[in-house]
Request: fold
Amino acid sequence: MLLFDLWHALHTPLESLLPDLGIFKEPQHDTTDLRGWHSGAVLVVHGFPGSPAEMRALGEALNKTGWNVRLLRLPGHGPAFSQLFQTRVTEWLTEVEKNLVELRKNYAPVLY
Reply:
């Protein structure tokens, strides 16, 4: 998977568009916050080419123990799947970092 991610980051042309097949449009495929009673939070990130829906069971298990959980959707995934080949690894990393900063403003500790 690492080799595929590296190839994708370096060689996929930005102008490639996937057809909008109307998939991954349901709310479970987008970023979701699960509020808990704990003072900490967990940022859960899905794999390639998934969506937060694939991590929902883990997020709910953490939330049941009190953690605040953010199930993060990376750019070009979930409802934006048709834009997958227009995104780069750097955009995914930036999105993760942005969400970590946001969560750290309100929670401690923040796990990811």
Observations:
- The beta strands are 32-34, 41-45, 68-72, 110-111.
- The mean pLDDT is 87.
- The chain has one domain: 2-14+24-111.
- Helices lie at 2-11, 56-64, 89-106.
